[in-house]
Amino acid sequence: MTEPITYLFVPGDRPDRFGKALTSGADRIIIDLEDSVLADHKMAARDAIAAAALDWQNVIVRINPVDTVHFEFDMSLLRSVPVRMVMLPKTESSDMISRVNRSLDKKCAMLPQIETVKSLFALQDILHADRVDRVAFGHLDFALDLGSSTDKDSLLYARSQIVHHSRYAEKPAPIDSVTAEFRDTDTVSAEAKAAKNLGFGGKLIIHPAQDLPVKKGFAPSPADIAWAKSVVQIIEKSGSGALAADGSMIDKPVEIRARHIIERAGKIS
Description:
By secondary structure, the protein is an alpha/beta fold. The protein has two domains: 6-218, TIM Barrel (Alpha-Beta Barrel), CATH 3.20.20.60; 222-268, no CATH class. 45% of the residues lie in helices and 14% in strands. The protein has helices at 18-22, 42-51, 71-80, 94-103, 117-121, 123-127, 139-146, 156-168, 185-198, 211-218, 222-238, 252-268, and strands at 6-11, 28-32, 59-62, 85-88, 109-114, 136-137, 175-176, 202-205, 243-245, 248-250. The strands form two sheets. Strands 6-5-4-3-2-1-8-7 form an eight-stranded parallel β-sheet. Strands 9-10 form a two-stranded antiparallel sheet. α2 packs parallel to α3 (71-80) and α11 (222-238) crosses α12 (252-268).
């Protein structure tokens, strides 16, 4: 099964946007009860989610952190709807995930967000918690906690650790954080490509206009596809192992990479 690439945030207190989000082309939508909803709007947001006719197969709900006064109200909502996945902001331990699991009367996949330094150093604990699907990076909150810039160089270590720990835990590749700029599609695609090259498998988005640019960034380039096809063609013609083509050695890892590129190109297209 192909893992989702784009995850579109929608404020929970904007039910007029739910339907548009579901038809936007994004692989998943995240109806948010946390940062995008003011405290005095959160109850109305819960009511809107409960009343909405949603395709829950493609809907995730981001709740408020477990240590806030809003958490139990969020849990009450989730027990009343057929939610399949829950996003947990500022997850810093498996205990936080266990608390959500205990509060629900159903089995839901968990999508923890890595948004603090403590989260980063608890990655294996978080990734091995019950029902965790994959993790997502929240670079804005992470940089705030760290006291660093939000640029890619300042957060390269954190991003790399999230990718490496996810692979070690044998989880799907993690989801990269949002790109604030949505009108400049070249910037969106470039940041998506940088995330893909680092090992991320998807990206959070904040506007439907970011969906296609992100998928373009995650798709293999025409040059990559041409290279992959030439490698497979040479291998299939020769029927042997290590070969030289255009001055490059073709052995098993190269063959596997080439076939993965071709497969990914077909799925994303």
